[in-house]
Amino acid sequence: MPVTYSYPAELERDEEGRYVVIFPDFRWGATDGETLEIALNEAEDLLRELLATTIRERQPMPIPSRATNHRPSVSPPVLIALKAALYDASRKSGISLRQLARDLDVAENELRQMMNPDHPTKTATLDTLLRRMGKRVSLTVSCATRTNRI
Which of 34, 61, 108, 150 could form an SS bridge with 101, CB 3.0 to 4.6 Å? Predict the structure, then answer.
């Protein structure tokens, strides 16, 4: 079964008319924006931070609930999605990071850096490690229905 790091967002208007966004699959965090487009762009930043914090705190990745017309799916930046996938696969492997590094033929400190959400890791490197772990990365590009970007 494919794993995704896109999560549904709940949107509400506050008393000032701003759009407030939360991710119900996480237990904290909110953002907002004057317009729906701004709020959803801010939601991408919030999702990046939610995933990064989950990795930093060594917590399990929440399983995304189902998106609906009233709960649009928000995707994180590609790099943090790949780091979340590597972190998640590492946790689910059931072996120590030291052993995993040996199995992947990388130094343990390099593997830790690659999982660090703040470390600039090449996407090709993360893809290679995930493949070595028996994972296949696929990327979906779709129309940005909420904006008029080209």
Answer: 108
Among 3, 149, 4, 128, smallest CA distance to 74 is for 4
The 10 Å Cβ neighbour count of residue 76 is 23
Collapsing DSSP to helix, strand or coil, 9 comes out as coil
Would you call 107 helix, strand, or coil by DSSP?
Answer: coil
Q: Which residues have C-beta within 8 Å of that of residue 113, sequence separation ≥ 6?
A: 119, 121
Q: Residue 148: its pLDDT value, please? A: 40
**Residue 83 in contact with residue 126, Cβ under 8 Å?**
yes
pTM, two decimals, is 0.87
- How far is it, in rounded angstroms, from Cα 4 to Cα 25? 13
- C-beta atoms surrounding 28 within 10 Å: 8
In whole angstroms, give the CA distance from residue 53 to residue 74: 17
How far is 150 from 144, CA to CA, in rounded Å? 9
